[in-house]
Write the structure tokens for this entry.
Amino acid sequence: MHTDFDEFFIESMAKLLGQNDDTKIKIMPQFHGFWLIGDNEETELRILRLANYQLIVSRVCITHKRNGCMSEIFRRLIEYARKNDIPRIVIQCVSTAEMAAWCEHRGLAHDGQQTYCRLVNGYKTGDYIWSIDQPV
């Protein structure tokens, strides 16, 4: 299956996530992406590439939080996007105040064109977008 990501990139993301959450990670190839699923049945992360338009990050579930794992994942995604001239990264379906705060803290903008947006503890749910011309 064609994933659009090289094997080293996928394996390095799986290793980072597995070490962070102390679980073995299964790599599930997806059409134009990959899905990382932990044996602990909690850890997961899916990353897709929509041509040269955007990277889509979804199903974010990291059990050991606030230690820089998601920030490192995002740093690697920014590096990949810049290297491949992909203009945006979308964190899709943000549903918790914690993840919305993480997105806002890193300068991602809420996609206000969504119809399913709601407030959770003062934060907007839905998609958050990072643009390639933003600083890291």
Observations:
- The chain has a mean pLDDT of 90.
